[in-house]
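User: Structure tokens for both sequences below?

Assistant:
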Amino acid sequence: MTGKTIHEIQIGDSAAFSKTISESDVYLYAGITGDFNPAHVNQPYAEKTFFKARIAHGLLSAGFLSTVIATQLPGPGTIYVRQELNFTAPVYMGDTVTASATVLEVDRDKNRVTLETLCRNQYGKVVVEGRAIVSPPPEG
């Protein structure tokens, strides 16, 4: 199975993926990456921060953008070239994050697609915003 090729992609195409963040997601991410920042894994410490509770790793939410790109738009076979990210709000355990990608530009000569990438929480608040450049799978 392969994703959409450059000739199948149009400006405005979009796709999304949603996941509710669990405590185990945060601990598994910490274990995989080695990022045991107490803001993520230590409740007494986190209560003293301006967030007042533990927060999920920003890159955990941003990773859902990769899910959208790798599985839907353009889909399987796509190669990431660049991703810019701004973390605009915290994500807490129990929040549902919806990652989305929308096509902004299509460069058929270079086989590159520029995507607006966003993650929103269950209230519609943007928690991660950015842009990605990807190379869709080859034709045939």
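Moving on to the next sequence.
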Amino acid sequence: MTDVPSLRGAEVGRRIGVGLMYGLWKPRVLGSWRVPAGGPVILAVNHSHNIDGPMVMGVAPRPTHFLIKKEAFIGPLDPFLTGIGQVKVDRHSTDRTAIARALGVLEQGGVLGIFPEGTRGEGDFASIRAGLAYFAVRSGAPIVPVAVLGSSDRPGRLIKALPPLRSRVDVVFGDPFDAGDGSGRRTRKALDEATARIQKQLTAHLENARRLTGR
């Protein structure tokens, strides 16, 4: 049986995230009340900079277990990330262990964080992988779209992959929605349809978040 990532560890990670994010930047959190207070939830986060995951982990109202590429688990970061309940995933293969751990989080009523674009990019949800649809349809968990805005390229940054210190970063949570069509089907066609549904919802949320924040 695959070990389910530690909820207690994720809570510790959330506290560390709160301290780091509010210490280094100025997060402005909008709509966190939209995250269901209990039961399985998937946070689908746009991904343009390295702080997106820690930022959401710190400001989300519930402890979150993110699927994180195995390349990040290097040296002392490996036991640390595992200890705070994060899930190591091999993006270049069907990582059955990571899949089982992620489903375990949802089966136990936890919060799973996913970057549906798979890797850092424009952060505009233009390229969404089928993995998000699989987890949503398989578990029946609602998806909450999350837009992280303000971590874009601007002068004043000390490290290229990070926004300038003490700058404002907006995190906007959207309304939860179901990815499936209610049939519970997990065929390739059903997952493709769910992926298209997800992309439409996430893109609309991002546009709304940009209007809301002026970003």
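User: Anything stand out in the second?

Assistant: Residues 64 and 100 are 16 Å apart (CA to CA).
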